[in-house]
Amino acid sequence: MLPKLVITDIDGVWTDGGMYYTAEGDVMKRFSVKDGWGVIFLHKLDIPVAIMTGENSQIVQKRADKLKISHCYIGVKDKVAQAEEVCRELGITLDEVAFIGDDLNDLPLLRKVGFSASPCNTPDYVKQEVKYVTVAHGGHGAFREFVEKILQDNGALQSVIASCLEC
């Protein structure tokens, strides 16, 4: 069954986990455009996407705005509580949620959702607790691979790809 909500962490999933600083002290993040297609695929199926990150970064909000992700939560200390709140708003349960995260602070939510995943460059103690480990590293298409896995397992990937080709 397709999830009714897909939640994603950012640093280490959509990025390589690095923080890039300019000489002036500005922080930059590198995002893979491949992951944007994962969001587009989910939008095609009317499956909402939620970003939940512990970082308090307007860079993440700008990426969410570009991809038309309306559920973007930055500076999140308790991802389970935030996910439960979003689920209440949507009238769903955590069993109907898919979540991809990559580190210790993601484990409580990874343990509670219906489908969990992490990028392959995640610590082993996280990988051993998820249902799927991507081949792609964080920041190199791991989110898109996660979405494609969900859609493939539910027989929806080819139709979504076909609908994107028609645009």
UniProtKB/TrEMBL annotation:
Q: Which reaction equations make up its catalytic activity? A: 3-deoxy-alpha-D-manno-2-octulosonate-8-phosphate + H2O = 3-deoxy-alpha-D-manno-oct-2-ulosonate + phosphate
Pfam families hit by this protein: Hydrolase
Cofactor(s) named in the record: Mg(2+)
Which key words tag this protein in UniProt? Hydrolase, Lipopolysaccharide biosynthesis, Magnesium, Metal-binding
Keyword Chloroplast listed: no
**Highest taxon of the lineage:** Bacteria
Which top class of enzyme applies to this chain?
Answer: hydrolase
Q: Which residues participate in substrate binding?
A: D11
Q: Which residues form the signal peptide?
A: none
Q: Which GO terms describe its molecular function?
A: 3-deoxy-manno-octulosonate-8-phosphatase activity; metal ion binding; N-acylneuraminate cytidylyltransferase activity
EC number(s) stated in the UniProt entry for this protein: 3.1.3.45
> Which CDD domains does UniProt cross-reference here?
HAD_KDO-like
Biological process terms from the Gene Ontology for this record are: lipopolysaccharide biosynthetic process
Q: Which SUPFAM superfamilies match?
A: HAD-like
Q: Per UniProt, where does Mg(2+) bind?
A: D9, D102
How it assembles, according to the record, is:
Homotetramer.
The similarity annotation says: Belongs to the KdsC family.
- Return the protein name: 3-deoxy-D-manno-octulosonate 8-phosphate phosphatase KdsC
